[in-house]
Design a protein that fits this description.
By secondary structure, this protein is mainly beta. The chain has two helices and 26 strands.
Length: 302
């Protein structure tokens, strides 16, 4: 057990994993993608785990269609896959729209998936480049719904289904859109900012200008967003406008995704690891799933 700076108990649910992203509370279990073992995992609250499916090209974002099948982002080949009873099938090929690895996603109640991507070769230290946010409709057709996103990452939809909020990790901000009846996005605006987007164009200098990197996010019943700060070893609860109202420190561990769940929606699950760099995380397998209790329950999607 760890004790964070606010006095909360941080419990370990699981450890010895490679790198965890896209936690989802679904059907009484915590589902999560483990990047470098290429598995989607499902955890019970006693820490027991089962492999749901193996995704050879690295799983990331998770969501469910209204009729039940799991959608999972296949990162390296830039595809969205669907898990049917007879196995994985192609739902949408996004290679012509995503400029680098597909990333986190959210699926709305109509079965439309909003999918982000890196935009550039992060692990290869390429110069940062903007990315598209892509909508995949239930029939598998794909459309760019927002351009010039600075590393679109964790994404949520408010309970009324009218607002989409996206973490722009390199942009140091959460960005909101109005969702149209047809799934189109409009009225793009900054929901919360934690600094200015980098002005430099080369990798090293640009990332020296990024101090807060919102990664995975989730929404609570008071309309606040919890976000994992990929550079700050913490999860942060923020109101629209940017006021930080709560924080959970994870000490020496980086925090890369978070999700509210549990039976009452008040358990905050944290995907943590010493590093996000692939060459280390893929061999060291020191990622952990942590959890603590919070006061305000989950809301919205995912």
């Amino acid at each position: 057990m760890l004790l964070d700076v606010t006095g909360r108990n941080l419990e370990v649910l699981a450890q010895g994993l490679s790198f965890l992203e896209s936690p989802r509370w679904h059907q009484g279990r915590l589902w999560v993608s483990d990047f470098y073992t290429h598995r989607v995992l499902r955890f019970a609250l006693d820490g027991s785990c089962e492999t749901v499916v193996e995704v050879p090209q690295q799983p990331s974002g998770l969501g469910w269609l209204p009729d039940g099948p799991l959608l999972v982002g296949s990162m390296r080949d830039r595809r969205l896959l669907r898990l049917d009873p007879d196995g994985l099938h192609l739902h949408a090929d996004l290679a012509h729209l995503a400029s680098w690895h597909v990333n986190d996603l959210v699926v709305d109640v109509q079965g439309r998936a909003y999918v982000g991507n890196f935009g550039f070769d992060l692990m290869g230290a390429a110069d940062p480049a903007p990315a598209n946010l892509i909508r995949v409709d239930p029939d598998g057709s794909a459309t760019v719904v927002a351009e010039q996103m600075l590393f679109p990452n964790g994404t949520v939809i408010t309970p009324d289904g009218r607002t989409l909020i996206v973490a722009e990790s390199v942009g140091q901000r959460l960005t909101a859109f109005d969702i149209g009846p047809d799934g189109s996005l409009a009225n793009r605006r900054v929901w919360a900012a934690f600094g200015e987007p980098p002005t430099a164009t080369d990798f090293a200098t640009a990332f020296s200008q990024v101090h807060v990197a919102p990664d995975g996010i989730c929404l609570d019943a008071e309309g606040c967003v919890w976000f994992a700060d990929a550079l700050g070893q913490r999860a942060v609860r923020v109101r629209e406008g940017g006021e930080i109202v709560d924080e959970v420190s994870t000490g020496q561990l980086g925090t890369f995704a978070c999700m509210l769940g549990g039976e009452d929606g008040r358990t905050l699950f944290l995907c943590c690891a010493p590093t996000f760099f692939e060459h280390e995380a893929s061999v060291n397998h020191r990622a952990q799933l942590l959890w603590c209790r919070v006061e305000v329950p989950h809301a919205g999607l995912p």
